[in-house]
Design a protein that fits this description.
Length: 368
């Protein structure tokens, strides 16, 4: 079946998306019959949980066992999903979510669907959050949630949010937010996952999450070349081979760039913090963009040795630096016209801080 029959978010208002007209266009085995396709499922359950504040619906739409990976923590039970959702809404009670795109992939009858859902949220900080006390200020933040959806439930999730841009708008210094975040407890499963991922990525090994269903070969080749040449080989002269001259990109911290020189600068600035870093493509999804091109979703990981020239960060030099990220690319005429890259800089710095404190504590114990 043509992807053109699947729900498209472009140029549609919310009432149209919440009351879809027409017949079911995907089988969606095991899903509630009201959903006509996987995009409809993602958009409507997100609206019900977050916009309508029906937090209890997480129990209906998340598996009892559902691993959720973020750069700042790990959970695998639906009760924690409910708790974390309530905490976020408590800190940002007016949070609204605007679904910008859902890039999906059929994983096969026995595996369900993979969705990469890009969201813009506008919210006011009315309560204490993981970044500190309430500020009363309003911010805008981009999130990408990658989910495996099986028989009407989300059964696995990778969640990436541009928290550094959010805290800047809230009037909080990024490193201050990271220091506060670093005081929050983590479980052993998270620390082991991060340790294993750093080892895997440095070795250039693939993610354990693989599916046999095919991905458009042209898109797959493009995504792998994009990451290999720009992140791993640092061949920044190739930027012009991947991007249109007037391409626009959005990166964490509210960074935006238009045109080849600016895009080069974003990559160089990011990778200069860990010059030996390597990255792996962990998942690729691709859908048509109208009749003009395609949208590619790439979930990727990066690991290297932290080496910042920033005086406030230089004490963490030499430590492992790890990023869990997602990028959405809009391809027109075989080049990138727009890019949205999302990862959590606050959590990345918090992990450096926690590792530093743990190392110093261990050194102190040895010296006593």
């Amino acid at each position: 079946m043509s992807q053109q029959n699947i729900t498209q978010l472009y140029w549609k208002n919310l009432p149209e998306l919440l009351e879809p007209q027409g017949k079911k266009v995907q089988e969606l085995r095991g899903f509630d019959p009201e959903f006509i396709d996987i995009v409809d499922y993602i958009i409507r359950i997100t609206h019900r949980i977050w916009e309508q504040k029906n937090v209890g619906l997480c129990i209906d739409y998340y598996g009892d066992y559902c691993p959720v990976h973020t750069l700042g923590g790990y959970s695998d039970d639906v009760e924690t999903v409910v708790k974390n959702t309530l905490k976020t809404i408590g800190a940002f009670p007016d949070r609204s979510l605007i679904g910008e795109n859902v890039i999906w992939r059929d994983l096969g009858d026995d595996a369900g669907y993979y969705s990469s859902h890009r969201i813009t949220s506008i919210m006011t900080n009315k309560g204490p959050s993981e970044f500190g006390p309430a500020t009363g200020k309003t911010g805008r933040v981009t999130t990408i949630a990658d989910c495996i959806c099986y028989e009407n439930k989300i059964v696995y999730e990778w969640l990436m949010r541009d928290n550094s841009f959010l805290v800047k708008q809230l009037g909080i210094d990024v490193l201050d937010a990271a220091h506060h975040f670093a005081t929050l407890p983590n479980n052993d499963r998270f620390e082991q996952w991060r340790k294993d991922e750093i080892k895997r990525v440095k070795a250039g090994q693939p993610s354990e999450h693989q599916w046999p269903t095919k991905v458009d070969e042209h898109a797959k080749t493009f995504a792998n070349r994009w990451l290999a040449q720009l992140f791993n080989e640092k061949s920044f002269s190739q930027v012009a081979e991947f991007y249109h001259l007037n391409a626009k990109i959005q990166w964490p911290g509210g960074i935006e760039a238009v045109g080849i020189p600016g895009i080069k600068g974003v990559f160089i600035g990011f990778l200069s913090q860990a010059p030996d870093a390597k990255a792996t493509v962990d998942h690729i999804g691709v859908v048509d963009f109208e009749d003009k091109g395609s949208d590619i979703a790439i979930r990727w990981s990066l690991a290297g040795t932290f080496n910042s020239g920033d005086k406030r960060l230089s004490q963490y030099n030499g430590q492992d630096y790890f990023i869990l990220a997602s990028t959405h690319l809009r391809i027109i005429d075989n080049k990138i016209q727009e890019e949205w890259t999302v990862f959590d800089e606050v959590a990345a710095y918090a992990n450096l801080i926690k590792d530093f404190n743990r190392l110093n504590q261990d050194s102190g114990d040895l010296s006593c």
